[in-house]
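Please produce the structure of this protein holding S-adenosyl-L-homocysteine.
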Amino acid sequence: MTEKINLMSLSPKELGEFFVSIGEKSFRSQQVLRWIYQFGVTEFDEMTNINKDLRAKLKEMCTISAPEIVSEQVASDGTTKWALDIGDGQLVETVLIPEPDRNTLCISTQVGCPVKCSFCRTGAQGFNRNLTVNEIIGQVFRAATRVGFSQNQEQKPISNVVMMGMGEPLLNLENVIKVTELLLSDYSFALSKRRVTISTSGVANVLNSIAGKLDVALALSLHAPNDEIRNELVPINKKFPIAKVMESVRNYIDKSNANCGRVTIEYVLLDHVNDSVENAHELVKLLRTIPCKINLIPFNEHECSDYKKPSNTRIDKFYKVLFDAGFTVIKRTTRGDEISAACGQLAGQVKDKLARKKIEAKVNQG
Ligand code: SAH
Ligand code: SF4
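Below is the modeled complex.
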């Protein structure tokens, strides 16, 4: 028997091609996408606008499935972290950040990360593998099973998706493109391109290759005002130094509608590493000609790192230099720290079978 095709592994275009390949009109893909991603329906029998014969055929040839949630942790501020079972004893994490006017889902794109930033818990795990389309869009689908599917409503239960979980999205480009198509398509999640964000450590060549083709909001994880410090924090900087990265960011933004002409710069503040007033002045100089808004993220401490979060006084002084220079600058408040759901705290991967059994037992107990 040939293996069944999982329709949740296909991009909108691939789904259309699939229907054509079985002698159907490609618009069937729009109907199926709607059922899955707007109504959360995974049983062909419930797809009432598809005739019985075709439903029977689809049942024989296809499945619709996503990785299962095996644990859920809810922080006091409502931030929720889910772990999904992706087989081989590995888990991938996704985080929902509820705010009064939106629900942002932070999704992972890789198991571990090959960039290995010195301060990041995901990087400390090393790199295991890229997540598949199914495993990435499955995070959004599973979150929607908890907070609700859009069912064609204007107000979408998951309103924003940011690729800021585990992994470097631009190093899993093929799958990230397909997932983005599913997030943006009117027939699936139908998110506006301004509400889908790719966060990157600065893979300049890949960014150049997608400029003008893949249009979503862009966040650059800069974290340093010069190459000397950045080489230490973000090792990929040795390959693509700041000048090259900035050139690729500018090129991307110039060709983008989603960014309204400016990039988000992320800057993790590490005590006495990149957080001095001099560093702030240097950053002002570096960013003077780049239209941007700056997110300052006080370091979230974790057991894989000796870096420390700066004092509030140091954070405020750093902030003030940028603010006084006229930048839009936001101090990111930490969400979900107590459940290790904050930026850079995702680990997810549980190779140890015993640890996984314990998690499963906990979930089963409710
Ligand atoms: N790989 C991508 C996206 C995932 S990381 C990237 O690096 O942009 C998402 C954000 O969390 C990045 O800006 C990253 O630098 C930041 N981050 C990682 N570890 C952190 C930590 N321990 N504390 C605060 N922010 C962290
Ligand atoms: Fe990878 Fe981003 Fe973590 Fe760096 S910060 S190791 S790029 S996930």
